[in-house]
């Protein structure tokens, strides 16, 4: 059901004011537009408007400075903030200041209309606690691509909650960095951030590492030891490489998530726990579930807010910003100031970066350390990239045999799957599991190929657009829009 209201629009750009006025009026809204913050504030103070849409940078005042006044005068008035300064900290500042929603410029007009409609029908009075941050100038995440804008906005939405987050992505995409950002800019920032890497701990010690142990609980346990849950009390526990957690520890972790308490290894007294869980993996947990290596019920407990970090090859436009950032870090460590010739940057943007941002950082640091000149030439970049390449790195995610048809590749995969049971048979329900497993990468690959255009993706897949949107929502597929 469509609900219409009075929309107050403030933007210094006349073209944007015209576009928004026409689009909002066309669907029945009353629109008032202005080019300055003072007029907007006068309207708000007079009780006008059901929703405010404003740019951050105005000729007479920054919207972030005006937002606290708006929230104090009219706490239930939704304010949608737009900005061409498409950084992580812009999204966080919008959230911190009490904005209803943040939209990077250029924005999707259809999405903005949907946000306006949602704001009009949602119950009012749900004003979250906001806290001023003293370190906004330190940007923990780098990139202005459309892929990263979706990540920033999702982070801003869940920052002030205790919802469990599951971060997926290839190695080197920055999963721990995102987990730290969730903690350091969230409601638990004053508590500890404790990280544990499941792949780095012997399997028989993981339960002790997580939950602690009592003296004499096992051979070598000469004293009581606190676990990571106890160390993270009141803060955030980051479970990295969760796909490597052994089944026994998975069962205990599930019990903690269900009941909010645990016992130490060798202990009998339940201990209440108050931690936020953020998990991460570079594996497809659905495959591990099908192979009986990961508990399906634990997956759904952890996958409350799924967040897929894009590989660097999907956001190559962020390479220049990342290069500048890593050169600045090298400067702080005493190395000479450097820059890369534009031709070299173009080469780096076309490179596949199988090691993602971590590989790029190491590459930039190597250039800073090995070459004395202030500008790194295109020839040097080409030489270094060539020396770093291996046959597997030329293309992302090649199949074992790139000449295989889809049918043959699936058959080969299923043969390996049946072989993994060493003569036994897999669990029942294989048909539905295989179809579900194929559906996720099929939709993800199509959405990536169309750069987030759902209309084109639906045509390619032969699906109704509403059906595609439903599947995107159900499967947790992140939609990355192309920059306009």
What's the layout of helices and strands?
Blueprint (H helix, E strand, L loop, with lengths): L5 E5 L3 H13 L3 E5 L2 H9 L5 E5 L7 H11 L5 E5 L4 H10 L3 E4 L4 H13 L24 H13 L6 E4 L6 H10 L8 E5 L8 H6 L16 H4 L4 E5 L6 H13 L1 E2 L8 E2 L3 E6 L3 H6 L5 H7 L2 E4 L10 H14 L6 E2 L1 H9 L5 H15 L4 E2 L1 H11 L17 H14 L10 H20 L4 H8 L3 H11 L9
Parallel strand pairs: 1-2, 1-3, 3-4, 4-5, 6-11, 6-12, 7-8, 8-11, 13-14
Antiparallel strand pairs: 9-10
Helix pairs in contact: 2-3, 4-6, 13-15, 14-16, 18-19
Instruction: Name the overall outline.
Output: globular
Average pLDDT taken over every residue: 84
Low-confidence stretches: 125-138, 390-402
**Beta-strand residue percentage:** 5-15%
Q: Give the N-terminus to C-terminus distance in angstroms.
A: 30 Å
How many strands? 14
Q: Which percent range fits the helix content?
A: 40-55%
Number of helices: 20
Kindly identify the CATH topology of the largest domain.
Rossmann fold
Number of domains: 4
Q: Assign the CATH class of the largest domain.
A: Alpha Beta
Could you give me the name of the CATH homologous superfamily of the largest domain?
A: P-loop containing nucleotide triphosphate hydrolases
- What structural class should be given to the helix and strand makeup? alpha/beta
Rg over C-alpha atoms, rounded to the nearest angstrom? 25 Å
Sequence of strands across the biggest β-sheet: 2-1-3-4-5
The CATH architecture of the largest domain is: 3-Layer(aba) Sandwich
Biggest β-sheet strands, sense, barrel: 5 strands, parallel
């Amino acid at each position: 059901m469509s609900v219409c209201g009075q929309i107050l629009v403030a933007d210094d750009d006349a073209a944007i004011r015209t576009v928004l006025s026409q689009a909002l009026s066309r669907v029945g809204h009353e629109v008032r537009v202005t080019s300055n913050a003072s007029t907007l504030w006068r309207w708000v103070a007079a009780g006008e408007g059901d929703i405010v849409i404003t740019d951050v940078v105005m000729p007479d005042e920054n919207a972030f400075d005006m937002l606290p006044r708006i929230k104090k005068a009219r706490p239930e008035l939704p304010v949608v903030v737009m900005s061409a300064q498409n950084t992580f900290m812009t999204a966080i500042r919008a959230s911190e200041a009490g904005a209803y929603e943040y939209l990077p410029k250029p924005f999707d007009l259809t999405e903005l209309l949907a946000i306006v409609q949602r704001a009009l029908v949602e119950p009012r009075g749900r004003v979250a606690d906001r806290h001023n941050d003293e370190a906004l100038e330190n940007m923990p995440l780098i990139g202005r691509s459309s892929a990263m804008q979706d990540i920033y906005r999702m982070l801003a939405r869940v920052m002030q909650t205790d919802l469990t987050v599951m971060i997926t992505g290839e190695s080197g995409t920055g999963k721990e960095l995102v987990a730290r950002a969730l903690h350091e800019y969230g409601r638990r920032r004053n508590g500890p951030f404790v990280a544990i890497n499941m792949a780095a701990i012997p399997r028989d010690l993981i339960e002790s590492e997580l939950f602690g142990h009592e003296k004499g609980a096992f051979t070598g346990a000469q004293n009581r030891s606190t676990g990571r849950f106890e160390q993270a009390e009141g803060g955030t526990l980051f479970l990295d490489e969760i796909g490597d957690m052994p089944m026994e520890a998975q069962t205990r972790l599930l019990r903690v998530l269900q009941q909010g308490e645990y016992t130490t290894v060798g202990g009998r007294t339940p201990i209440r726990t108050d931690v936020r869980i953020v998990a991460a993996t570079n594996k497809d947990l659905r495959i591990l579930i099908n192979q009986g290596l990961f508990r399906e019920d634990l997956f759904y407990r952890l996958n409350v807010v799924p967040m897929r970090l894009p590989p660097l090859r999907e956001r190559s436009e962020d390479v220049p910003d990342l290069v500048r950032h890593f050169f600045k870090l090298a400067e702080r460590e005493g190395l000479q100031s450097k820059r890369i010739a534009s031709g070299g940057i173009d080469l780096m943007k076309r490179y596949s970066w199988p090691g993602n941002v971590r590989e790029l950082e190491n590459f930039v640091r190597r250039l800073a350390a090995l070459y004395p000149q202030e500008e790194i030439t295109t020839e040097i970049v080409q030489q270094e990239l060539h020396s770093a390449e291996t046959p597997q790195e030329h293309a992302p995610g090649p199949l074992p045999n790139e000449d295989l048809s889809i049918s043959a590749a699936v058959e080969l995969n299923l043969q390996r799957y049946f072989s993994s049971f060493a003569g036994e048979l897999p669990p029942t329900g294989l048909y539905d599991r295989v179809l579900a497993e194929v559906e996720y990468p099929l939709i993800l690959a199509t959405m990536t190929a169309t750069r987030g255009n759902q209309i084109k993706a639906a045509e390619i897949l032969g699906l109704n657009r509403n059906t595609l949107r439903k599947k995107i929502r159900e499967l947790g597929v992140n939609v990355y829009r192309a920059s306009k």
